[in-house]
Amino acid sequence: MFGELAVLEDFDLSLRQGEFVSLIGPSGCGKTTLLKIFAGLIKDFSGELECQPHEESELFASVVFQDFAFFPWLNIFDNIKICLNSPIMDSKKNRLVSSYLERVRLLDFKDYFPGDLSEGMIQRANVARALASCSKVILMDEPFVHLDFLSRIQLQQLTLEILAGELRTVFFITHNIHEAVTLSDRVVLMSARPGKNVKEFLIDIPRPRDVNKIRENRRYLDLVGEITELLTVEVERTQRQFQQWIKNKHSVL
Amino acid sequence: MDKKQTFGPLSKRLGALFNAPVILLILWELLARFQVIDSRYFPAPVAILRRLAGLLLHDPKFLSDLSFSLKRLVLGAVLAVPFAIALGLIMGLNQRAARFFNPLISVTYPIPKLSVLPLLMILLGIGDASKVAIIAIGIFYLVLLSVIHGIRRFPEIYSYIAQIYRIPFFKKIYSIVLKGILPDILYGCKVGIGYGLVMVVAGEFFAAKNGMGFFMWNAWDQFRILDVYVGLAVFSLMGLAVFSFFDLLLLKLKWRGRPRLW
Fold first, then answer.
1. Does residue B49 lie in a domain region?
2. Beta-carbon separation of A59 and B166 below 8 A
3. Is A164 on the interface with B (CB under 8 A)?
4. What distance in Å separates the CA atoms of residue B175 and residue A85, rounded to the nearest whole number?
5. A10, A234, B99, B127: which is deepest, by most CB within 10 A?
C-alpha cells in the first residue's frame, strides 16, 4: 500500500483491559495507519498484533470515525442497528441501540436522518454506535476534530461519563494535548515518521474528572506542559523532514 | 418582501401554469385560430385534443393501438431494469467484473440502438419479440450506467463501516448498496424508460400491425395530418407521465438533498 516507505518502525504498545490510551504525534507520523491496522482494515503489514482471546462471533474492535460515517438513507436508529451483527435477539439489539442513544441524549432524534443532525449530534451517535456494538476495544480517530470548541468540551465530558460505567479499552488518536490528558489513563507520544513510541505519560489524575475543573489541576498543567515540549521537538523534526523532501523533489526536477 | 405574502397558494398555482409549454400552446392556438399559420398543417391544439378524446371514446382500434404500445414499453422495462440493476451491482462492486465487462459496454453503448433493429428482426422475427427487445436494449444501458455511477460515488468510509462492524453480505447489498443507489436507479429508469418511448415508435414504424407508431405511420400514409399530431400528443403525454412518475418517487426519498456535513 505504501510501497517501500516504512510508516511505522519499532512501534510497540500494549493496552490493558479498561484502559484509556491516547496516541499523540505530529501529522503524518502514521497514527491513522496504526488505527487501521488495529481495526483490521490493513492486513498487509509486518509486525505482530495480539488480542485477548475472544469469541469469534463477538466484535473485538469498533471505530469512531472523524468523518461523516453514517448512511444518509437510514435514520439514526437503523444506522446504529445495522452495525450490530453479533448473534443476539432482535429485541435485544433494539434495546441496546435505544439505551446507548439515550446515554448520548439522542433518543428523541432516533428517527431523524443523519443529514438533519448537527456535527456534535452526529459524533454522539458515532460514539453510541461504537458502544452499542459491544466491542471490547473502541478505536477513536480524532473523533472531535471537526467540532467547535464548546461541542468538543461537551463531547469530552460525555465520553468521560459514559465510559466511567463501562469496562471498555479505548485507543484514542488526537492532536489535542489537552484532550488527551483530560480523557486518558496513559498518553503515548509518537515520533516523526517512521513512527515509533517515544515516551509514555501516566496520567495519574483521579477520576471522576470534570472537563472544566481539570484545567485548574496542578498535575494536569504540568503534564500538558511536559507533553507539549516533547511534541514540539517531534513536530519540528517532521517539518525539517518535509522541507528536505521538497528540496530533494526540486533538485530532481 | 411584502409582495411575496400577498401571493396566496391559488395565485401560486396559477403562476406555475405560466411556463414555456403552456405559453407556446396558447400562442399556437391563437395563430391557428386566426389563420396566421395554415391550420391544415398546424392544426390548433384544441382541435388535436378534441380528436384525441373522440378516438379514445369511440375508436376501439385506437385504444388497442395505445394499449399495445404501453404493453411493449412496460414489457421492455420489466425485462431491462432488473438485468441492468444486477449487472450494475456486479460491475460496481467487483473490480474484476468491471474490468471484464467495461470494454463490452464501451463498444456496444455508442452503437445507435435503432441500427440493431434490422438484425433483431432477422433473429427474432418481425413480431412483438424484436420490438420489445429493441425497447429493452434502449432502457438497459441508461439504467446500467446510472447504477454503476451511483455505486462509484459511494465514499470509501462506507466500506470501512461495513468491514469494521462486519455487516453481512445480503444486509450490505440490500440496506446499504441498493437503498443507497435508489435515487440513481430511479433516475436511470426515468431517463431510460423515457428513451424507451423512442424505441416504441421506431419499432412500430416497421412491419407493424398495431401500436401508436403504426397509428402515426398509417396517418402519414393516408395524409391524416391531424392524426399525426394526435400521435405526437400521445407520446408527449406518455413521456410526461413517465417523468412525473419517477420524479414523484424521487421526491418521496426524504433523505435526499439534506445538507451533507463535512
1. no
2. yes
3. no
4. 14
5. A234
